[in-house]
């Protein structure tokens, strides 16, 4: 059996013979910019000396933690307005030692789509100008450019045909590409699966700068990997073909809030018991717990009368009444849920304005066994009620997410037996207020530690779309390539048994590790 040193030497030899070694170089910066100028108009390349550089860089930033001068700055922002610009940026970057960070919506929780944690020469490839949504009602399908937001997708689909929908998330400013590349959990997944389950094709610019016009028909492994394997690891997806879902012309939205004194802990515990039952796939009840309150946000793909019958049969404790119901089209429902007002116009979904009002930190977990009333009472009393600036969002799974769908169908592995995903969120107002930042971090760490007894273990599962560098970061080896072992530390929490296959795909399509960040898939290089 070969020793570990011999194996490492053999892999290094294979890498040298078969791959283009990527060597970052400050000296290549000017050559990179000159290369871009030959293909991309100068008004689409914002260098640091440009008066518009800061505003363009901040235009998609959703968390002010990463909008300050302490963040490692990119060499430039390339605001691609067409696929040839994307190809040129990749080819110039490869040729002159400048990596790309690829950004669409800017909701990346660790901002790895537009910043580097450690000093390096990189550029931001901004996709927000690539935002065409081509809905084809007769086919119940759409081609969506990677820079479009979920709100823009919803608006295009809902205005084309009020019976069509897409099973996306609650936040309309999230980029479609980021949402799908992490798998995508949302308000209709119990009926139609995660967002990535509705992807039927994609166009990708690979690490050589070549456009693959139909990944589904040319590279099934790559097609598998991009549908939930995390963003910015395998290439630049420039467009997605989506299967759209049929819904009734009238859906129902209900928001009910209950306090701890009104039995919030018992209600959340009862909610846990309903998720894996083989009924009501049309019903999603998302729960937000904060302070002394539990907020039950319901989307039902049908009329109020049918919803009330179901609630009386299965969840009478919540006390839902006719007056709680709001009937509307699916499009208006997404505006209501995403914008927070029952009278919010559908056009509001087109607003791409970023949110720099509060500082945010997020973490995630998965629950496979109900926590129960006593557990929830402890969570409320020991954590939630002691810090009003923190909350938990519980996203129910079951239904089409897991019904007959194996964990390896896509890279998103949190299917069989999962009750729900937990997103922890903590806010504070001023990064300069060290006490406030420390209090927020302390509360989040305390709650996350307390939850260990209730959530999955070995690994403690996490959601790739809620990226969290605290669970691990990549280490780059002496050959300039991310080590597989360092990637496993965080990768198996996001992808579990699918991580090795993702790394094998990466090793084939990007063996030189050009598309790399602190939590990108490392290349698993195969020997022949």
UniProtKB/TrEMBL annotation:
Residues 70-247 form the FAD-binding PCMH-type domain. InterPro entries: BBE, FAD-bd_PCMH, FAD-bd_PCMH-like_sf, FAD-bd_PCMH_sub1, FAD-bd_PCMH_sub2, Oxid_FAD_bind_N. GO terms for molecular function: FAD binding; oxidoreductase activity. It comes from the Eukaryota. Keywords: FAD, Flavoprotein, Glycoprotein, Signal. PROSITE patterns: FAD_PCMH. The keyword ATP-binding does not apply. This is FAD-binding PCMH-type domain-containing protein. It comes from Panicum hallii var. hallii.
């Amino acid at each position: 059996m070969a020793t570990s040193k011999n194996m490492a030497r053999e892999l290094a030899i294979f890498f040298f013979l078969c791959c283009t070694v990527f060597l970052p170089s400050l000296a290549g910066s000017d050559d990179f910019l000159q290369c871009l100028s030959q293909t991309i108009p100068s008004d689409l390349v914002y260098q640091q000396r440009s008066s518009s550089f800061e505003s363009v860089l901040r235009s998609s930033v959703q968390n002010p933690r990463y909008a300050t001068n302490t963040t490692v700055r990119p060499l430039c922002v390339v605001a691609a307005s067409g696929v040839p610009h994307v190809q040129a940026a990749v080819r110039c970057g490869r040729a002159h030692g400048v990596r790309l960070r690829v950004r669409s919506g800017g909701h990346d929780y660790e901002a790895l789509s537009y910043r580097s944690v450690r000093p390096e020469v990189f550029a931001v490839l901004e996709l927000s100008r690539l935002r065409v949504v081509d809905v084809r009602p007769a086919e119940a399908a759409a081609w969506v450019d990677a820079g479009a937001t979920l709100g823009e997708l919803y608006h295009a689909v809902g205005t084309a045909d009020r019976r069509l929908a897409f099973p996306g998330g609650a936040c309309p400013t999230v980029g479609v590409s980021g949402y799908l590349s992490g798998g995508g959990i949302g308000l209709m997944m119990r009926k139609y699966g995660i967002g990535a389950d509705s992807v039927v094709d994609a166009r990708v610019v690979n690490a050589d700068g070549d456009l693959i016009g139909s990944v589904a028909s040319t590279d099934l492994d790559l097609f598998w990997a991009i549908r939930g394997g995390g963003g910015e690891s395998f290439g630049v997806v420039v467009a997605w073909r989506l299967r759209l879902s049929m819904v009734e012309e009238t859906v129902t939205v209900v928001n009910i809030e209950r306090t701890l004194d009104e039995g919030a802990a018992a209600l959340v515990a009862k909610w846990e018991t309903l998720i894996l039952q083989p009924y009501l796939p049309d019903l999603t009840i998302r729960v937000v717990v904060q302070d002394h309150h539990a907020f039950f946000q319901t989307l039902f793909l049908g009329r109020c009368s049918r919803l009330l019958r179901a609630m009386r049969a299965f969840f009478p404790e919540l006390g839902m009444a006719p007056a709680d119901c709001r009937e509307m089209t699916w499009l208006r429902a997404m505006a209501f849920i995403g914008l927070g007002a029952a009278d919010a116009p559908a056009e509001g979904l087109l607003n791409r304005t970023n949110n720099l009002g509060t500082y945010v930190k997020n973490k995630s977990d998965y629950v496979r066994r109900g926590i129960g009333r006593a557990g929830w009472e402890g969570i409320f009393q020991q954590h939630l009620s002691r810090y009003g600036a923190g909350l938990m969002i519980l996203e129910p799974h079951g239904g089409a997410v897991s019904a007959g769908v194996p964990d390896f169908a896509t890279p998103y592995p949190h299917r069989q037996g999962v009750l729900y995903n937990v997103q922890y969120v903590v806010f504070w107002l001023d990064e300069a207020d060290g006490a406030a930042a420390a209090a927020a971090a302390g509360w989040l760490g305390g709650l996350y530690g307390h939850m260990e007894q209730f959530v999955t273990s070995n690994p403690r599962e996490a959601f790739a779309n809620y990226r969290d560098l605290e669970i691990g970061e990549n280490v780059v080896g002496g050959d300039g390539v991310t080590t597989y072992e360092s990637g496993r530390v965080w990768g198996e929490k996001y992808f579990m048994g699918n991580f090795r296959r993702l790394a094998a795909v990466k090793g084939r399509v990007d063996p030189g590790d050009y598309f790399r960040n602190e939590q990108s898939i490392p290349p698993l290089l195969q020997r022949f």
